[in-house]
Amino acid sequence: LHNWPRVTLCTYVTSLMFLLSLGCWGRADENDSRTKADQPVSVDEVIERLEQVEAKLHGFRVHCLSTVDRRNSSIRVVEELEEIFGDVSSSRTTTNVVWHYRDDGSWRFEADVVQVDATADAAKQTKKFSAYSVFDGPRGRGKYLTLNSPDSDVRVSKEEEQYGSTPKGFLQKRPTEFLTQSWRRSFTDELRQDQGKITRREILDGRALVVLTTKARKVRPNIPFYLYREFWIDVERGVVVRLQTFARESEDSQWGLQLRQESSGYEWDAGSELWLPTSAKELQWNLSADGKGKLFSLAVFAFSGWEINPEFAPETFLLEQSWYTPNDRP
């Protein structure tokens, strides 16, 4: 990261001119980024730019390949975690997914998963399975199915269709987390509700960014856990390129970085007039009372074949549809 670029003549362009230009944002030369970012900008103008992007996205189809490395040794061990992880000290999960999304809350994914678990004595075991999930947003119903691969060392629990009233079976972070929303809230809703303020400016990957920081809040009334978030925003492109979550366990604890999500490799999609990421990553830390963190999870994502606002076949999000069963799996 570098300091904010030196002031240019464009610094003196008024806020009014910036606001009028919001409707003209589009593809621009990389060299224009630092110049345009020198313009005065308000919180409302930044949020309005993000809302313009949100309004253009009604659905998508995309392929995503991800690799997640976890080290359970960094997790503070309690009985429940011992039951979940057993003797596993680290794992690597590779997930190959095709995602389908519609902005009425409907989701569908088909995934092939390979998970390699390593124990403290260096022994390894491999789980291989496929997973299918669909959630019909308007109906508020979902279905999930996992199928073991014949060459898997360990079998996943149940090979049967499971139904529920919440989306289940997401084995990979949803692509919307790197587009327009986080934790099922749009970026703009969170920035407005949690009173985001401009706290500084940064340079990342040669792009000039505005950083909005939300007000610190208690996560739940009966749980002594607090957080605030930083949104690193490329206003020209209308994208959040980095989202950081800072947390502490009590009012007496120190703040520490708990979660970082970052997108990169943006490409211009002329049809939708959106900038879309081709890669992303997520890092997670466990925090001590003094705010120091231990990295325990690193996820890397590669996106390809973005289709924005596609026409979906009528059966795409239907619960009653034909999937492979354990007896006819090829």
Structure characterization notes:
With 330 residues, this protein is mostly beta strands. The chain contains 5 helices and 18 strands. It has helices at residues 15-21, 32-37, 43-56, 79-85, 187-193, and strands spanning 59-71, 88-102, 106-119, 124-136, 141-148, 162-164, 181-182, 185-186, 197-204, 207-213, 217-220, 223-234, 239-248, 256-264, 267-269, 274-276, 279-287, 293-308. A hairpin with a 2-residue loop joins β9 and β10 (207-213). The model is unreliable at 1-24, 73-86 and 325-330 (pLDDT under 50).
Average residue-wise pLDDT: 82
The oligomeric state of the chains shown is single chain
Helical content stands at 10-25%
Radius of gyration (Å): 22 Å
Shape: globular
What is the total tally of β strands? 18
Q: Which regions have little confidence, pLDDT < 50, spanning 5+ residues? A: 1-24, 73-86, 325-330
How do the strands and helices of this protein lay out in sequence?
Elements lengths: L14 H7 L10 H6 L5 H14 L2 E13 L7 H7 L2 E15 L3 E14 L4 E13 L4 E8 L13 E3 L16 E2 L2 E2 H7 L3 E8 L2 E7 L3 E4 L2 E12 L4 E10 L7 E9 L2 E3 L4 E3 L2 E9 L5 E16 L22
Antiparallel strand pairs: 1-2, 1-18, 2-3, 3-4, 4-5, 5-6, 7-8, 9-10, 10-12, 11-12, 12-13, 13-14, 14-17, 15-16, 17-18
Q: What would you say about this model in short?
A:
With 330 residues, this protein is mostly beta strands. The protein has five helices and 18 strands.
Descriptive key words:
330 residues, mainly beta, two-stranded antiparallel sheet, disordered N terminus, disordered C terminus
